[in-house]
């Protein structure tokens, strides 16, 4: 009973914008969400991204949290749907690869928007990617949006794998920092960044 009460208090505090309360909820559930996503996708990288997306959604829906009766069930429903969307995307990657020669516009058009993320987050994410330096943007789009492996992206861009790895790391940091800062939870980046 006490555990439920504490969680309800944390949810109420999070709804009022308390980032410390949000971090406690994050720390409580992060391993469960990560393990669940990793088991279903078979990828630690994908599980990392799902974890981040799920908790970005929690923060963005924070005002509704006190009304949720079974928070854990709600959280895992979001995670499950995010995982299924990801698996669908992964299944379509090979088909998309055949159309790559159509140009960079295809990358933007084929970006999945069915991840149950709010339009606000989608808009911020697009702006974050748009502001990347040209080479970082190309690497980010090829790997994170298009699903290429680092070696494939390196060959496509005529770069070394190490250079691609560097560009991707810089791009991911910039995108996450931009998104979290513009969504009003920059402090949360410090919590999440330590996990990657």
Structure report:
The protein has one domain: Arc Repressor Mutant, subunit A. Helix content is 76%, strand content 0%. The chain has ten helices and no strands. The two termini are 34 Å apart. Mean pLDDT is 76; it is low at 100-117 and 185-196. This is RNA polymerase sigma-70 factor.
Secondary structure layout plus pairing:
Layout (H helix, E strand, L loop, with lengths): L1 H14 L3 H23 L2 H17 L10 H27 L6 H6 L9 H12 L3 H12 L4 H8 L3 H22 L3 H8 L3
Summarize the structure.
The chain is mostly helical and 196 residues long.
Question: Which terms would index this structure?
Answer:
single chain; mainly alpha; Arc Repressor Mutant, subunit A; 76% helix; 0% strand; 196 residues
